[in-house]
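Risk register update: the risk of archive-format incompatibility is retired. Evidence:
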Amino acid sequence: MSEKTTAPVEEVAVKAPKNKGLDWLLDIVKGFIVGTANVIPGVSGGTLMLVLGIYEKVIGSISNIFKQFKKSVLTLLPVLVGVGVAILSMSKVITYCLNAYTFATIMLFVGAVLGGMPMLIARVKKDPVKPLYVVIGLITFALVIGMLFLGQGGNANLSHMNIFKFLVVIFMGAIGSATMIIPGVSGSALLMTFGYYTPIYGAIGDLTNADSTTRGNDALIALAFLIGTAVGIWAVAKLIEMLLKKYEIQSYWGIIGFVLASAIIIVLQNFFMLDGAWTSAATVLAGTPVWEYILGVALAALGFYGSYKM
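Archived output:
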């Protein structure tokens, strides 16, 4: 009687299929948080994308939108839906909360920004700390803080557009949009510094004014700004993607400087500035009840925890 031998069965690990619907919903929620944060003075959309874990895939999708159009659009769509819904639905709510409960509202977002730090530190821990890395972090930190102390330039004259002014507005659109996706940097603040914020956004606003006598000139300004915006976002996304691939550790040290500075900028702009002028925190927070300070600390902890978990 021959013995029957049974070959051992090789176990095959089967990965659970990804739930695309859940991923989309989560990206919509994250986009909603980014859109809501954009209403807060000093809060960078790039920073929030970073701490919520969608920064690299958003940058990659923008960078490769011509190579992988369908995939890039499908990746960006839920985030953009969330951002759009937030801007339409939350602008008034956030503005009200900022005016009525300044301390508590700002502390929530400070906590959310700092909640991304453990993830960033984990990224750089794979390589021993080097003096160059620290210098990179200090430079990006100083750049963001320094922007707050730059004086606002006089408003540029964009009446009677010509080819030179058209090219300048394209350049300003590229700068403004590019800084939107750099963590900690405000594109609006840069445009104000160079004196182009009011003339550009004023011209765009006047396009819907039925009584406008400068619609043709305003349309040229809007067109140039739109071109610059598209070019800026794409070009900087390509640059950031390249830096993250070739110089990952150095890039994340730079991002750490951006994020830490962003948290400080949020506090300075909202607690120590009033209508663009420096003042004391006591003036800004005059009349704030004790319970709001307690709530603010609790919301900062909640924002940190929520951002860390996401």
